[in-house]
Each structure stands twice: as structure tokens, then as C-alpha cells.
Amino acid sequence: MKSLSERRQILAGLAAEVAFAVLPLLVVLMVVAHAEHSARLFMSPEWSFGASILFGQSLVRFVSGLARGGNAATGPVALVLALLIVFGLVPSLLVLYMTLQVTEMKGDPSGWLQFFQVSLFSGAAAMYMLLGTIGEMWNKSKG
User: Fold this and answer.
1) What pLDDT shows up at residue 5?
2) CA dist., res. 92 & res. 9, Å (int)
3) Cβ partners under 8 Å of residue 6, min gap 6
4) Model-level pTM?
């Protein structure tokens, strides 16, 4: 079993990576705040874009950790992967598409679309931290 300090080191490294996913959103926030349109922050497609990247990275971290050192049961791993794709990656890409489509037509995304963007991004960040930690711990357990 891994020590608490090793888990904290893994989480700190993963949190640093999530910070770079948040960086474009911070820039958007600063720009819309400067333009005095802060309500438009949640309309930005960067939320869905970031969610798609983080869900994909979650898959990569989880599977690469399993491939390198994990000895998990295939059923639960397959379930996690299926749920991540079905309820995370695909919806975030669809919301990204819809948001881009609306903004290209010079419209504003609906409140529901904005809600889903932010929710998917938050869920993606949480999944990245969780599955990234599991993947890294599996990876380190081999060595």
C-alpha cells in the first residue's frame, strides 16, 4: 500500500496539470471581465474543450497505469472506461459542437448548455484527479 505522502505527491502533480487546463478559462474570464461581460464567461466553448481534453487524459492515465503495473479485475476497469466515454467524453464533445455551432451563428448558448459545459468540466477535472491517481499508483506499484 502506498504511503499518504506518495499519494499527495501524485495528487499535487495531477493538480498542476489540471491548472494548465484551467489557464485558458482564466484568460477568458479576464477578457470578459475587462469587457464588462462577465455573464458571458459560461458561454465560452473553452469549458467543453477543456472537459474533452481532461476526460481523454483521464482515460490515458488510467489505462497506461493499468497496462504498466495494474492487476485490476477486467470487469470493473471495463465499466469505468465505458462510463467515462459514455457519460464524459462523448457528451463533452457534443456540448462543444453545440456551443461552437451556436456561437458561429452569432447566438448565445442556452442556460442548459452553459450549465452542462461547466458541469462536464468540473466532472472531468475530478475524474482526472481520481483516475490519474489510480493510474499512477498502479504504475508505481510495478516498480
Assistant:
1) 85
2) 29
3) 137, 140
4) 0.84
